[in-house]
Specification:
This protein is of the alpha+beta class. It has helices at residues 2-12, 19-23, 32-36, 45-49, 58-62, 71-75, 84-88, 97-101, 133-142, and strands spanning 119-124, 127-132, 149-154, 164-166, 174-186, 193-198, 212-214, 218-220, 223-224, 240-247, 255-258, 263-265, 272-274, 282-285, 293-298, 303-314. Among the domains are: 115-144, no CATH class; 149-314.
């Protein structure tokens, strides 16, 4: 007994803990290893109290493992009410700020040329889609009112060409055609312009004398354009200007033409001559085949300059 008391005394030797402090240990079931976890902990009671009431699981706390965001960065989310579905809308978006800003009600407009294959944004019954301008052109074509004059093609600036041909005939869209001559000047002085019909889409053109009639059954080599005074190419002579009309070439009957509105400067004195709307400036092609292309050509020499523009008169179908 004396030895036991001596051992207790030795255990207490050097201890400054009070009985109350020692009683705190009463009932502690932590192992030495568990207690050793606190070895080196420098947290204050206040800091440890921050965890008071925390119900997060280890898995939930581990979500923060590796987070490097600052408080300011996390605060950006403060007040965000977006749902997961709404935030997921941004998933996969690669648009730049500049690209997104293009649809932001701005008023700035560029001058970038529009060409086939280009796209534009359209609202398709509530769904935004990108559509080609070619599709828009096709749609607009279906909205043209019957009888409207529709631009089809232009020769562009003519430069010493033997002839100018148009093969853009389309019976599904147009009944008749008009061709506007703009200062079409001959290389040879004192010549007349003729239109030669094609029934094979422009593979060949008929210029046979007698296959056309003009001036009360007079044989011709083509539709007459400037049958009045011939066009000159001298100083202050600027060739042919005005309109040439081709009536319903898609019908399997004789094809008629008229060119009463043509003006040209004569090779004789440089004065302007106008063709009135008179039968003598009409012609017809004595072939009942469908005409689907036309070639304009002087009866001698090349076309040195000018432009010819083709229009169709919509049939409204």
């Amino acid at each position: 007994m004396a030895g036991y008391i001596g051992n207790q005394a030795q255990i207490r030797s050097g201890l400054s803990a009070t009985i109350d402090e020692l009683n705190i240990i009463d009932g502690v079931t932590a192992t030495t290893a568990e207690l050793n976890i606190l070895d080196g902990v420098t947290s204050t009671a206040t800091e440890l109290n921050i965890l008071d009431g925390v119900t997060a699981t280890t898995a939930e706390l581990n979500i923060l493992d590796g987070v490097t965001s600052t408080a300011a960065e996390l605060n950006i989310m403060d007040g965000v009410t977006a749902t997961t579905a709404e935030l997921n809308i941004m998933d996969g978006v690669t648009a730049t700020a500049a690209e997104l800003n293009l649809i932001d009600g701005g008023t700035a407009r560029g001058t970038t040329a529009v060409a086939d294959g280009d796209g534009f944004l359209t609202n398709d019954g509530g769904t935004m889609r990108m559509t080609k301008v070619d599709t828009l052109a096709t749609y607009m074509g279906t909205k043209i009112i019957g009888g409207s004059l529709v631009y089809i093609a232009s020769s562009g600036a003519i430069s010493n060409a033997a002839s100018v041909a148009f093969t853009q005939f389309d019976a599904s869209k147009y009944d008749h055609y008009k061709f506007y001559f703009q200062y079409v000047k001959p290389a040879t002085d004192g010549v007349r312009m003729y239109g030669h019909a094609s029934t094979n889409g422009g593979s060949s053109y008929d210029s046979t004398n007698g296959n056309y009639h003009m001036n009360y059954d007079t044989d011709s080599t083509g539709f007459t354009v400037n049958q009045g005074d011939p066009a000159g190419n001298g100083t202050n002579e600027y060739g042919i200007s005005g309109d040439f009309f081709l009536a319903n070439p898609a019908l399997a009957t004789y094809t008629y033409s008229s060119s009463g509105g043509i003006l040209n400067t004569s090779q004789t004195d440089g004065h302007i001559w106008g063709q009135g709307h008179q039968p003598k400036y009409a012609a017809m092609y004595l072939n009942t085949a469908v005409v689907n292309a036309i070639q304009f050509k002087f009866d001698s020499g090349n076309i040195t300059s000018g432009e010819i523009v083709m229009y169709g008169i919509a049939n409204g179908t």
